[in-house]
Amino acid sequence: MKVNPRGLAATFVVAICSCVLAGAVHAVEVKVLASTGVRDVIVALAPDFERSTGNKVVGMWAGTVDVLKRLEGGEVVDLVILAAPDIDNLIKQGKIDPGSGVPLLRSDVGVCVRAGAPRPDISTPDAVKRTLLAVKSIGYSSGPSGTYLLGLFQRMGIADEMKAKATVPPPGVAIGDLVARGEVELGFHQVSELLPVAGIDYLGPLPAAIQGTTVFTGGIHASAAQPGAAGSLVKFLASPEAVPVIRKKGMEPG
User: Fold this and answer.
1) To the nearest whole number, what is the mean pLDDT of the chain?
2) pTM for the whole thing?
3) Which of 6, 13, 115, 165 has its CA 20 to 30 A from that of 245?
């Protein structure tokens, strides 16, 4: 049988176009509601995920308190990324699909001062305590890192002194911005939230002996419109390919 090369080429082109069109038809938006602590990582990784799947990541970022309020108020998304205890509570409330929680990212608590200010010693737990007692003001968030610090101050026996010095801004406000504007002398926040801030000097993480690492977990909403695509995004964020970007943004894989 004689084969027409032009006919084969035309058939091949039609097949390719059909695949492309099919992919476009099935491309979906994956709605992500997450802590601002993971924003830079997700934003940096989203383009690779979108190129490989054709799906679009629609990110919405807020402080933990506001994320929880939105979910408790009935907002439906595809993927939620919060500190592990918050995801566990949302599973108990029926907001997150049981069994869908996957640890994605780990973040330490970091310390900063205004750019050009004297750099206090935070090299040891005792040095941190001395620095805390010496400064006039501190700032920390209402999220997981702030909750950890409250317990740390209690264990150090300086909770009352720190309460008098502390500024805790509304959820979603960057502690680094307060420090950069000179509103507080010493700031504590997730490392990933301090690194992008202009106008501060990042001193480093708290010493290992008093470090409070937050594990951010991804969970698929129980009423997600795109649970399959959300699951694919979770797998991508947990893949080895994502690790270099995660570390560049000041976090570690979960």
Assistant:
1) 90
2) 0.82
3) 115
